[in-house]
Amino acid sequence: MRKWVCLKKLQVPKDRLARRLNFISRRFDKHAAYWQFVVWLRQLSMIILTNVTSNCIAIGVVSIITLLGFLWLHYKVRPFVYNFQNLVEQYLLLSGIIIILSGTIYCVVEVWVNE
């Protein structure tokens, strides 16, 4: 019987495996070691939101609320080791909120003008 290649036992030393997974496991501070799952949840929620509806105003409003929730969560947890990393992430989330707010305002004005 042929064994599946992907099901074979991994023959990598633990220190080498730790170096390979360093980007995922050591990227955040010890109190938030699994923060990458929160980042993936944020990205997945935005993907699902854009696939559920095509109304740009609804997408904008729900996206802003979602990003504000994740910004609040980031502010409370502060997952990165260094303070400047947390500030950069906060500013990136804020800039995303501002861009989506601008697009939502544009959609509202466009709907209002076309009526």
List descriptors:
115 residues; mainly alpha
Descriptive notes:
This protein is mainly alpha-helical and 115 residues long. The chain has helices at 14-20, 22-25, 35-52, 56-77, 83-114. The termini are far apart. The model has no long low-confidence stretch (mean pLDDT 89).
Helix and strand arrangement:
Elements: H1 14-20, H2 22-25, H3 35-52, H4 56-77, H5 83-114
Helix pairs in contact: 3-4, 4-5
Task: Characterize this entry briefly.
The chain has 115 residues and is mostly helical. It has helices at 14-20, 22-25, 35-52, 56-77, 83-114.
Low-pLDDT residue intervals, each spanning 5 or more residues: none
* Number of helical regions: 5
Major sheet size, sense and barrel closure:
none
Tally of extended strands?
0
Instruction: Return Rg in Å.
Output: 20 Å
Helix content: over 70%
Distance between the ends: 69 Å
User: What is the H/E order?
Assistant: HHHHH
Supply the helix-strand structural class: mainly alpha
Beta-strand percentage range: under 5%
User: What would the average pLDDT be, to the nearest integer?
Assistant: 89
- Note the overall shape: elongated
